[in-house]
Specification:
- The structure is a homodimer.
- By secondary structure, chain A is of the alpha+beta class.
- Chain A folds into two domains: 80 residues, Gcn5-related N-acetyltransferase (GNAT) (Aminopeptidase, 3-Layer(aba) Sandwich); 146 residues, Nucleoside Triphosphate Pyrophosphohydrolase (Alpha-Beta Complex), CATH 3.90.79.
- Chain A is built from seven helices and 14 strands.
- In chain A, the strands form three sheets. In chain A, strands 6, 7, 8, 9, 10, 11 and 12 form a seven-stranded mixed sheet that branches. Chain A has a five-stranded mixed sheet with strand order 1-2-3-5-4, covered by helices on one side.
- The interface between A and B is large, with 94 and 94 residues.
Amino acid sequence: MAASGFVYKLIPLVRGRLRGRTSCPARIPVRAFSCTASRSQLHSVEGTGGPLAGKVDRFGGVTVNLADIGLPADISECLFSTLLQESLVQWKAEGKVAVWLRVPISLSRCAAAASTHGFTFHHATHDHAVLSLWLGEGESRLPGFATHQVGVAGAVVDESNGKVLVVQDRNKTKNAWKFPGGLSDPGENIGVTAVREVFEETGVRSEFRSLLSIRQQHNHPGAFGMSDMYIICRLSPLTYDINFCTQECLRCEWLDLAELAKTNDTTPITSRVARLLLHGLERGFGEIDLSMEELPAVYSGMFYQLYHRQLPPTSKS
Amino acid sequence: MAASGFVYKLIPLVRGRLRGRTSCPARIPVRAFSCTASRSQLHSVEGTGGPLAGKVDRFGGVTVNLADIGLPADISECLFSTLLQESLVQWKAEGKVAVWLRVPISLSRCAAAASTHGFTFHHATHDHAVLSLWLGEGESRLPGFATHQVGVAGAVVDESNGKVLVVQDRNKTKNAWKFPGGLSDPGENIGVTAVREVFEETGVRSEFRSLLSIRQQHNHPGAFGMSDMYIICRLSPLTYDINFCTQECLRCEWLDLAELAKTNDTTPITSRVARLLLHGLERGFGEIDLSMEELPAVYSGMFYQLYHRQLPPTSKS
């Protein structure tokens, strides 16, 4: 069904409703969308049903973008609920397995209406929310949304003297030495985050060498209850003068790796990575590194980053 | 300000409004929350202003949970917009740097009202959305929401014969051998996902050994435009009989690692990891593994998983 057909059907309905009085949801102190009156009105005005205009995907789901189907800006929860109800009947009859609703923030009242039909938020960002409803058999097989934030720290190692760049956070109760770092921006590669955060916190410029460790932690208080992936990279310094951010850091120093590996004034992970780095200094960083390679992504023409242990030179690459 | 105080202030306002006629937003074909009339009404009834009841965090942000402050279930966009506007004036005067609104899905119309004051969706899940507005100087310093989904595949290696468990997806154009895997459920550890997905797809039970490779990819079509972290683990088989899921897989076999490493009927990453595993079979898996250790999280009493190269036995652990 074309979007224009939907608009044609809807506009006279809304105009008719606005002229009436009994169906105005704001006049009755109940949930605004419990409106059987409006539903009969809908049928009397229009006569024919038909689903909201959506796109069907290869999994048998239908996606309706409420910004694209010509809904009046002031459509009521009541009326949208009725339209959605009729669409759901038809989608179920057609064997659709799921419905996705993309709701612009200005039409958020449609999300409330949809929730009375079982829709829940799948995700929301900036100016729109996406709701979903599973219509298929058994448990929902819909994929979830992003579950992890990614934090990256950079261990900048000066190989000439065995020192590493460390900071103490300003706003922590315990003044523990740690590697500078922070959250990845959306779409930012791990190594880029490490180099950026090191520079922002310490003023030291560096370049990415390898990935050293990964920590996974759930129900993270700094991640709105979601999961946190915290990655420590090995970096090489390009500059050495410290000019640290006094908003974020209390101290910033080039510290002996051996000292960092044995002090109690640090975090367990920092201590662990310090020992890894000491081992790397002595035996070669090849012992501790996951090296990175960029490979082309088949579908997008973009590149992805792949990290793993270096293959021996005798292997085909 | 206590939530009960807010309720006291609001209820008579709403009742007064419902008795009137001109301010019913459903009656005027304009954006429902452009209602200066209602605002003057607010002042005439109440006389005193006061912010929505919220909690102040250590960063100077205020969080208002709309489910906790006694809003009437049928509060209009117009009235909420007016209340929010007055609160914003006060929060700005108090030097608050940010406002977070937690909006139950049934009160979604309040999200539309908030958007007219500059609020945007920070995230949404299941039955509520969270909106945010930066009031501080310069660019927003609010942390973002989760950016990555995590997919995990398991390479189950039978060390007795050098074979590895591989599948071909049912719904792909190219029938490439790959390791069974899928998306992590919320709160699920990497190794648990690998073992679960291998069993669901192939019927083979296995146990986690190590982490082998990590891929980071942005704007991922299967991740609603977000980023994807794809992790391959090494697993050891506990059972060997294949009973694969015909919904997901076209084929499932124990394949020679040497054959997988040289065939073209696979993906670049699978091929790469097959060569890593061959190297591990010959020289010991210690050459290719990131081993995992559980450590206690300081703040939560929970544990996190840390992956890095095994430290040599001579190091303190």
